[in-house]
Amino acid sequence: MTVTAYSFTRLSLRIATSALAETVTAWYRANARDLPWRQPGATPWGVLVSEVMLQQTQVSRVEPAWRRWMERWPTPADLAADPPGEAIRAWDRLGYPRRALRLHACAGAIVERHDGEVPDDVDALLALPGIGMYTARAVAAFAFRQRHPVVDTNVRRVVARVVEGAADGGAATTPADLRAVEVLLPVDHEAAATASVAFMELGAVVCTARTPRCDDCPLTAVCAWRLAGSPPSAAPSRRIQRYHGTDRYVRGLIMAVLRAADDPVARDRLDAVWPDAEQRERALGGLLADGLVRERAGTFTLPG
DNA sequence: AATGCGTGGCA
DNA sequence: TTGCCAAGCAT
């Protein structure tokens, strides 16, 4: 291939991919859900809190919890000033309560390292408790309007279908995923940030995992998966872990008791949640090791 | 890199 | 009803 032809191909690619982002952004402007952390007045802290709550938890369940949380702890310093157990209690039934513990630790780290202000660069965000590759980039893009590939399960699925013609994306984000998304982003930072949330929104409400609404999709005419006849997933479905009766389930039972309690809880009240003593001990031991539960004189509480 | 980690909604 | 899946992270 000559240099000229190569350059031409690259240019065409750039034009095609840029049109993709523009199309999805236009769709987003007309169809975006009105979520409180997307409001102009939302603070970087509010965006960070929303992203942590949204880790593996649906928007419909997060929204009321987020409103209550932000009213009670409008800044990182407010949260850091309260005991971690209060964060766990306020987390209520969002699931994965270690996220609440880490969010509390995150608030403390922001106060200590960053003078109470959410940092605006990806590396500083990545160094905070509970903030990983996805959340760091999401905060940098959505709160600070920077240009970063923001790749979650929705974006992996959209790119897999539209660009690669596959039924679904990989289980976890790889460096290759970041590069694949980076080339789709507009050069302008503000436009890139909006395109990022637009790709996510498309995956969340149209290009869904089980029953995609292709008739409502702005990319249906150019979607490689659609054009290939929407072939089924090639990969074996990942093993789904059952829930009822697992250690995780028993941990949930114990945490529900402790969240509801105003005073230290005696062991026999925890023993009542589940008949299998061995499994109970394993679950309680895990919670103690995780710092989600404290023991004092044979009684149990959330961490003070 | 595979695994453990809550809870609920929906088809 | 039951199984899948949901804006992941840490180890």
Automatic annotation (TrEMBL):
Annotated keywords: 4Fe-4S, DNA damage, DNA repair, Glycosidase, Hydrolase, Iron, Iron-sulfur, Metal-binding, Signal
Cofactor: [4Fe-4S] cluster
Record field: catalytic activity: Hydrolyzes free adenine bases from 7,8-dihydro-8-oxoguanine:adenine mismatched double-stranded DNA, leaving an apurinic site
EC number(s) per entry: 3.2.2.31
One GO term of the biological process aspect: base-excision repair
Source organism, top-level taxon: Bacteria
Root EC class: hydrolase
Entry-linked CDD domains: ENDO3c
Record flagged with keyword Metal-binding: yes
Pfam families per UniProt: EndIII_4Fe-2S, HHH, HhH-GPD
InterPro entries: DNA_glycosylase, Endonuclease-III-like_CS2, Endonuclease3_FeS-loop_motif, HhH-GPD_domain, HhH_base_excis_C, HhH_motif, MIG/MutY
Segment forming the signal sequence: 1-21
Family recorded in the similarity comment: Belongs to the Nth/MutY family.
UniProt protein name: Adenine DNA glycosylase
Species name: Dactylosporangium sucinum
Lineage of producing organism: Bacteria, Bacillati, Actinomycetota, Actinomycetes, Micromonosporales
